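Morning!

As promised:
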Amino acid sequence: MNLKKLSTLLGLSQTTVSRALNDYPEVSEATRKRVKDAARAYNYSANTRAKGLATGRSMAIGHVIPISTQHEMVNPVFADFIAGAGEIYSRNDHDMLLSVVADIDEERIYRELAAKASVDGVIIHGPRANDPRIKLLQELGLPFVVHGRTSDEVADYSWVDVNNRRSFQRATEFLLDLGHRRIALINGLELMDFAQRRKDGFLAAHANRDLAADPALMVSEEMTEDFGYRSASEMLRRALPPTAFLVSSMIAAIGVRRAIGDAGKKMGRDVSVIIHDDELSYLPNGVEIPIFTAAKSSVRLAGQLCAKMLLDIIASGDRTPHNKLLETELTLGDSTGPAPEGG
Amino acid sequence: MNLKKLSTLLGLSQTTVSRALNDYPEVSEATRKRVKDAARAYNYSANTRAKGLATGRSMAIGHVIPISTQHEMVNPVFADFIAGAGEIYSRNDHDMLLSVVADIDEERIYRELAAKASVDGVIIHGPRANDPRIKLLQELGLPFVVHGRTSDEVADYSWVDVNNRRSFQRATEFLLDLGHRRIALINGLELMDFAQRRKDGFLAAHANRDLAADPALMVSEEMTEDFGYRSASEMLRRALPPTAFLVSSMIAAIGVRRAIGDAGKKMGRDVSVIIHDDELSYLPNGVEIPIFTAAKSSVRLAGQLCAKMLLDIIASGDRTPHNKLLETELTLGDSTGPAPEGG
DNA sequence: AATCATTTCCAAAGCGCTTTGAGTAACCAA
DNA sequence: TTGGTTACTCAAAGCGCTTTGGAAATGATT
C-alpha cells in the first residue's frame, strides 16, 4: 500500500491524503477521519525513505557504541541507557540508529553519518577526558548531546551528566566520618572523564580534612567483576589493608564483595563498601534493604533526558548548549559501618 | 556535497559518477579512481534515503527490544548480542535500527516496520514458548531470524539457538554424578521458550536415572541478582536444603552465591553451583580459573551468527529456513564438588 | 445577482539517488 | 572511405513522499 493507491481508493488526491495524515489544518475533520480510518484499515504508513527524502529529515537519532578495542567490551550501562532513550524516541516517532564500532574508527562513522544524512542528531557515549568527537560534530553541524562531559571546559556543547565529583566527595566524607582512614578507590578507566571527576572528589574529601589519600589504594581499570575481585583481593592481603572501599560500579563491587568473603571478612563489619549505583534494571541494589550503601543515579533516566534534550534541540533549531547536572542520592545499606578498632 | 555537485565538479554525468562509486564494470579504472578519490576528498557519501528510495532497499536491520512491562527490565544479554550483530552489520554496510518497545505493543511495531519499509529484515529477541510474532512476520513477508526458538514445531522459520535442553541435561547429570540428590533449578521466566527447554533437560536427567525432581526446588522468574538471592536464601533455610543449584544465568548465580555466603556455607564445598554462562563481556566467569562451573555459550557469537544469517537470507533471496544449533561447553570451576556426606 | 472570503481540494515540482535505453568517440578491418 | 566493434558516457525516468501555488466549490455579504 502506498499513498497513490490509498488516495485513488479514497477518491482523493495524494496531497489531500498526505495533509490529512499529517494533521494539516486545511483538511476538514470529516475527510481527515475518513483518511485516517482507511490508513489504519489498509495498514498504511508512509514509506520512511520517501518521507525523509521529501522532508529532508530522517526522524532518527544515531547512537555510536564504541567497543573498547582493548577488552572487546560493551559498557554494561548501555542497555539501560538505550532503554530510556528508546522510550522517548518511540513516543516521538523517532527511530534509533545504532552503530557498533571499534573505538578506533569512531571518527569515520560520525563523518559518514553526517554525509549520508542518515540521522538528525547523535548521542555521544562515554566521553573521554579530552574528546575529539565534540569538535568534530560541531564542525559537521550535526546536533548532538553528550552523556557525560569532557574535561575540556572551553568547548560549549549540550550534555547530561551526573555530578560525579560531588557524589564521590560526599561518599568519601561519609566513610571518613565513620572513622575510616585507609579508603581504597576502585575506579573506572582514567581516560574516561567520569573517572577523573570521581577521583577528584575522592581527593578533595581527603584534602578538606588535611588527610592524604594513599596512591597505592587507588586503582583504575575497565570496571568488570574480575577487576573488583583482583584489586580488592590484592589490597586485603597487604600488611595494612584498607578498611573501606569506594567502588565506581555495582559490577566491580560484586567482585569486591567476593574478595572480602574469600578473605574471611564480613562486609559492613570488617570492611565497608560504598558504591556508585547506576540502577541497572537487572542488578538492583537489593529490593527492600539495599545491599550496598550507594550513591545512586538512574542511567535509564539519563537516557531519557539525553533523548529529550536532543529532540528539543532538533525541533527548536536552537543551537545554544543545554546542560543538565544530576545529583546522586546517597542510600544507606548494610555494607558500611564504623572503622574497626585499631583498623 | 551531493551527487550533482560532485559530478559537475568532476565534469562527469551523475550516472557515471554513481556507477564508478558502485563498482559497475562499464567505467574505466582511471575514471573510477578519479571519482573515488574525489568522493573521499570532499567527504561524499550517498544520501541514505535517496539511495534507499531508488534501490528499494534500506540497508538496515531492525531489532525490536521488548521491555518487560512487569519489571521494566532490559535483558542483560542484550548489550553483548547487539555488539556481536553490530560488528557484522558494520562490516556489510548495514545499519541497525533499534526499537525499544513495551512487550505489549510489539505487534504494532512490526507492522509499522513493514509498512514503512524502514528495514530489510528483523531479528526477533526472546521468543516466547508460543510466539505470535513468527506468524505475523511471515504474513508481512519481512525476512527475519529468531534468536532462540519457539516451542511451536509446526512453523518453519530461521533461527540460531543454544541447545538448552541438552546443556541442562548434561549439567544436571554432572551434579547427579557427584552424588547430589536435592538439586534446585533457578530458572528464567517460564513463558520464555529457553526456560522451558532448560527445565525439560533438567527433568530428563532425573527421569533417565529414575529419580524425581522436587517441584519445590524449581523456581522461575526474571533472572535478576535479587531473584537468585531470595530463592536460594529461602531454600537454604529449609529443613532439607538443596545441596546443589543449577542456575540459568550468571547474574542470578551471583545472588545465589551471596545467599550461600549469608547462610554461612561455602560454595563448592557445602553447596555446589553450576550455571549457564552467556559470556557477557563485563561479567566474565573468572579470568584464569572459572568462578563457577558453567555451561557456556557466547551470546555475542550468537549475535554475529544471527546477523550473518539474516544478511545472507536477504542477499540471496532464499526464503527456505536456515537453522543453527549451538552446543554449550561445560567448564569446570570451583563452585562444584561432591555432595556432602549425609547431605 | 455579483462580489468577496473561506473552505476544500488538486496538479506538478522537487527531494538525491539508481538505472534504463541510447548515444558518441575511438579503434580496427576491409 | 565505410561499416562494425568496443569502451565510455549521458539524459531522463522513476522511487514515494511533501509542499507550493492555484483552482474550484461553498457560504456570506453587498
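The radius of gyration of chain A is 25 Å.

Hope this helps with the figure draft.
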